[in-house]
Design goal:
six-stranded mixed beta sheet, elongated, Hsp33 domain, 36% helix, CBS domain Like, 29% strand, 298 residues
């Protein structure tokens, strides 16, 4: 099933629902960053969460950044997701592995540990909106849902998951259900939604069983006037890095530093944090940058 995102409403527009499948893009991230099992689960959950959050924004070019900083061995992670369906991200320590937790699942909470979640929403103009909340579990999904309730005052249920084995990522994605302000006063509706989400199987269990995103939403909201929008948005792992951008960054180091690189290393190597792409700039590239700097100064 292709990586995709769908949107829906229910309860006469009082509930907003979004579902996303991120299996392929999470596998690409696993390969590019050489992620351990627990690091794959952490980053996959966060990338799904980022895509679900940004899906509510309206202006073209809008993006959401999620930064988790924890005291656990994983250190933390960073995700950048766009309204256009692109997402990228990395973890601080990709090789960290932990034994399964008491439930027999990947111990993402233990890998991240105590810390904070930082969320930045950028609509492309003005100052981005940012917020910080303390992590309540380190399991990513619970922490993002906690952010939505405390910082945006939106009762929300977020179900995200990643299933990965020795062959790679088998299933990844999630569901976001939100009670919008006009319906949030209906405590019975909020309670009903919480009960139904808590009774669901894990997202990856449903996906591996062949259930589509519309099937999952019907299982939760089918009797509440569910309306699934016809548009299916494709989502993908995408990084805007390029060799020209690397050269631009090297140029900012200045002539003295560039000359030192030529003398000591006969060039420079740069690795993109977001996608792991390796860029090599040889001595000729660096000499050209020096010529450009000298031309600018004169």
């Amino acid at each position: 099933m292709a990586d995709q995102l769908i949107r829906a409403t229910a309860a006469n527009g009082g509930i907003r629902a979004v579902g996303v499948i991120t299996t392929r893009l999470t596998e690409i991230a696993r390969q590019r960053h050489q992620l351990s099992y627990v690091a794959t689960a952490a980053l996959g959950r966060a990338m799904s969460s980022g895509l679900l959050l940004v899906s509510s924004m309206k202006k073209e070019g809008s993006r959401v950044n999620l930064r988790i900083k924890g005291q656990g061995p994983l250190g933390g992670l960073f995700v950048d997701a766009g309204l256009d369906g692109t997402v990228r991200g990395y973890v601080d320590h990709p090789a960290v592995e932990l034994p399964p937790n008491s439930k027999g699942k990947l111990d993402v909470g233990g890998a991240i540990g105590e810390g904070y979640l930082y969320v930045l929403r950028d609509v492309g103009y003005g100052y981005p909106y940012s917020s910080t909340v303390e992590l309540i579990s380190g399991e990513v999904g619970e922490d993002v849902a906690h952010y939505l309730v405390t910082s945006e005052q939106t009762p929300s249920a977020l179900l995200v998951g990643v299933f990965v084995d020795q062959t790679g990522v088998i299933a990844s994605g999630g569901l976001l259900l939100q009670v919008l302000p006009k319906a949030a006063r209906d405590e019975s509706l909020v309670q009903l939604l919480e009960e139904r989400v808590s009774s669901l199987q894990s997202f990856t269990t449903m996906l591996r069983a062949g259930r589509s995103l519309p099937d999952m939403l019907r299982g939760v909201l089918g009797d509440l006037g569910l309306e699934i929008f016809p548009e299916v948005q494709l989502v993908r792992f995408d990084c805007g890095c390029s060799f020209n951008r690397v050269l631009g960054a090297l140029k900012m180091l200045g002539e003295t530093e560039l000359l030192d690189m030529i003398d000591s290393d006969e060039g420079a190597e740069a690795i993109c944090h977001f996608c792991g792409e390796i860029y090599q700039a040889d001595s000729d590239h660096l000499r050209q940058l020096i010529i450009e700097l000298q031309a600018q100064s004169s």
